[in-house]
Amino acid sequence: xxxxxxxxxxxxxxxxxxxxxxxxxxxxxxxxxxxxxxxxxxxxxxxxxxxxxxxxxxxxxxxxxxxxxxxxxxxxxxxxxxxxxxxxxxxxxxxxxxxxxxxxxxxxxxxxxxxxxxxxxxxxxxxxxxxxxxxxxxxxxxxxxxxxxxxxxxxxxxxxxxxxxxxxxxxxxxxxxxxxxxxxxxxxxxxxxxxxxxxxxxxxxxxxxxxxxxxxxxxxxxxxxxxxxxxxxxxxxxxxxxxxxxxxxxxxxxxxxxxxxxxxxxxxxxxxxxxxxxxxxxxxxxxxxxxxxxxxxxxxxxxxxxxxxxxxxxxxxxxxxxxxxxxxxxxxxxxxxxxxxxxxxxxxxxxxxxxxxxxxxxxxxxxxxxxxxxxxxxxxxxxxxxxxxxxxxxxxxxxxxxxxxxxxxxxxxxxxxxxxxxxxxxxxxxxxxxxxxxxxxxxxxxxxxxxxxxxxxxxxxxxxxxxxxxxxxxxxxxxxxxxxxxx
Length: 487
Known about the structure:
The protein is α/β, with parallel strands linked by helices. It folds into four domains: 3-166, Hypothetical protein VC1899 like domain (Restriction endonuclease-like) (Rossmann fold, 3-Layer(aba) Sandwich), CATH 3.40.50.10770; 174-349, P-loop containing nucleotide triphosphate hydrolases (Rossmann fold); 354-434, Orthogonal Bundle (Helicase, Ruva Protein, domain 3), CATH 1.10.8.60; 438-480, Arc Repressor Mutant, subunit A. The chain has helices at 28-35, 58-70, 89-102, 117-129, 142-145, 161-173, 186-199, 216-225, 244-252, 269-272, 288-300, 326-331, 337-343, 358-376, 385-393, 399-413, 426-429, 439-453, 458-465, 470-480; strands at 3-8, 44-49, 76-80, 107-111, 134-140, 151-154, 206-209, 234-238, 253-254, 266-267, 277-281, 302-303, 312-313, 317-322, 346-349. α4 links the parallel β4 and β5. α19 crosses α20 (470-480). The longest helix has 19 residues, at 358-376. Mean pLDDT is 87; it is low at 160-178.
């Protein structure tokens, strides 16, 4: 475990007032190194800047040069945090939370004297709420301490007292437009509560699992919209829709003339999303070659456009999604384990619509009828009890997307304000037995399977199923029209 000092620098107090590019030797950062760095036995001091690239911050360059020359044995690192608004508490907090998670195995001392008031508050919030191995430190100047040397003070703050209040405030503020056009049923609310926590960690890699049409892309967009990257681009890419060469061009861009048809230069999606989020949908379908290329990009944060020798540094969050069993694909050699571990820092599982239960399906039906009717500018049609029962008994293998399409179909084809059963697709009116949720279909399917297992011996079948008498089985066979002649 390393002992690391972490701080911003003071844009005013670390520099002389009349010479803004000259270091103040009595400023908070220089004083800390002179009096406390060796005494506290730090292995490194990480100094943060609001700039994206630390080398673009001239003041930080001057400070780093001074510290390196004056304290040659002290290890320094500068980090760009890409903060757009230095008084935006939420933005600052999210950025430093991501950094602290990266350093979670170390002892971190947070020197909170330098920086804006929002930066100061953010240090306190992450210290009280994250449960990490951190200390809050301040210095008191020799003048204020009425002593020959400055004093180092550990700030004691009651854990969770401030953070809990802020969390409630943030939860109320984050009920954005998304909740107006998306239904958060109980099972989905739990998932989205997790997603909001994940969103607060801006650099975590996320893998969203779930069947097609279940809402994986909506969840990815939700994470982006509730993260510090929300003002930056969000770029979705369906990986299964491209060949290798086209996917490379789509993701990384290309130079003019780099291949047949490349009539002009193209900026890739990842570069366009710099600072934001790239959503890699159906990542389980990409080839071994593209898996290797993506692994390098995610590891190094660098891209190389097709036909170019230029390496471009990018700062994006990758969210991947798939309906495939990636573990099985890894075990069979179809998917790289190292890429799987890179993209699955945090896994979120979106349940199928059938798994959400009948009560939630009722909520979705009511919600989508109202929503689609508004979109189509048509009245909500009347639905008979029989039609509603059919809709509630169908398993929806296409999930939310299929349900939306069916609702839209019923609204568009309604006559005199009434939705008709005859307007339902054949697959719903006569679903395969294994897809039906109706008890008669489930029972019929089960009887057929047990009959086949017992070579159509009805006595053994009756015993296995547990019917009270052979007559009950025979009535069921007749009722359901089950063929009992051995094939």
